Fold this sequence. Notes:
2 copies of one chain form a homodimer.
Chain A: E1 2-3, H1 10-19, E2 23-26, H2 29-42, E3 46-53, E4 75-76, H3 77-87, E5 93-99, H4 110-128, E6 135-137, H5 154-165, E7 171-173, H6 177-181, E8 191-197, E9 200-205, H7 214-218, E10 250-253, E11 262-267
Parallel strand pairs in A: 1-2, 2-3, 3-4, 3-5, 5-6, 6-7, 9-10
Antiparallel strand pairs in A: 8-9, 10-11
Helix pairs in contact in A: 1-2, 3-4, 4-5
Amino acid sequence: IVYAGVGKTDIEIIEALDAGVGYFNxxxxxxxxxxxxxxxxxxxxxxxxxxxxxxxxxxTHAFLKTGKKETKFGVDIERALKVFADYGNNATVNLCxxxxxxxxGGKKIDPYVEAVEKTLPLIDQLRSNGHTIEALDLGGGxxxxxESGTVPSAAEYAAGIVPLLKDKNIKLILEPGKSICANxxxxxxxxxxxxxxxxxxxxxVDAGMNDLIRPSLYDAFHFIWPAKVDEKFVPxxxxxxxxxxxxxxxxxxxxxxxxxxFFAKDRA
Amino acid sequence: IVYAGVGKTDIEIIEALDAGVGYFNxxxxxxxxxxxxxxxxxxxxxxxxxxxxxxxxxxTHAFLKTGKKETKFGVDIERALKVFADYGNNATVNLCxxxxxxxxGGKKIDPYVEAVEKTLPLIDQLRSNGHTIEALDLGGGxxxxxESGTVPSAAEYAAGIVPLLKDKNIKLILEPGKSICANxxxxxxxxxxxxxxxxxxxxxVDAGMNDLIRPSLYDAFHFIWPAKVDEKFVPxxxxxxxxxxxxxxxxxxxxxxxxxxFFAKDRA
Lengths: 268, 268
């Protein structure tokens, strides 16, 4: 188990120390100092991975990019050497892994390959400086297959990444949670009213942006389907531009007094 | 008291009937039919205001505009005549008022003047068709004075609107809540970590976008100030571009694993 997060509080860190997590993913020197302080105080020894930003271009929503140089996440790759020089021999927190996270929702393997290619020289350098680097956490963010066949398979990721790492004597940690289970999540909501407004038809449901903010925040696409539906309207493929005979184009909106409170616009 | 909202549920409507609200603001024919059904069922008689969209241009964030023709809110002004023709003589729900809401956060009086000018002919027409129109609810959305002196005063609104309405024998309802009390709200948060990331400095606090989403959703500006601060750093004016000697430029961000989880960027 790795414990990731940019703003871990003291109480959370102590609970994680008690639980014996595998690695604390470290985002800044200050956080590492705080972890050392708390571990000493609790009489614990733990392992940590330094999160580095390989400064890789990753095509997704601007809000979902995390691997560029100047983000709130992690430290830049140049700074990593200094962090290891300063804290790499600490007896309380064993800094012995690297964490990389590029963002969420990307649909290409290339940025992961590039990130590994940029990180390996750092790992070599750290090792030649006398540091043990036992693991590389290549993060989460692997795109979920929201629409049929739009994201690479695990085998395709492996084909890109494994050859780069297989002779490096390093443990590879992956966090593919969303790509495995995102499509298992559904939101159930009830239609309250339908309404004609100008040329548009609106379906007003009893769930709002407070229940699912992704459409307004990221312009995210989510399939919307009746709970009870005639067989002929059941789609065989998860296609965004699905057009079935007998459907009409509507906006699906929530009950909140905000124009941002919508789930779909001009959807058939 | 008026009860506004685009997705009123049956339970909420029954509670409002029991509480004896002044007017139900009605957003669609279906909602009105539902109110009539529930009021009959509960043995209640109530008043309602029809929300109409005067199709006025209102300069604010796209998500905050509500008075254009094709929104999930209200009915277009042309449709209002038909709604009154169909439901204006209902004995259970007395449709006897007009509701207009242009959006949130605008800083000009003109759209309100234009909305009244567009709504008055409708009121005249409805009255000559035999309907009683006793009230005009000119909504909320009046801009809050987040920065000193950037929004019109109540007197200025009155100077624009009152002359148009004073001989019309109509009750004017206003909902100026936010403009009165928005600046009374503060969010208290604690700094967890500070961090240098590339050329940027980040202040990581323990509140997140789940506590205050306006910066990421609307790019909203909020003042940020230390809870304890030296007298010389206390601003005398609420100015967005405040630059005080001895401050540095930082990003203030939350603990959530999202690039969208920020409160301020490049703020001194």
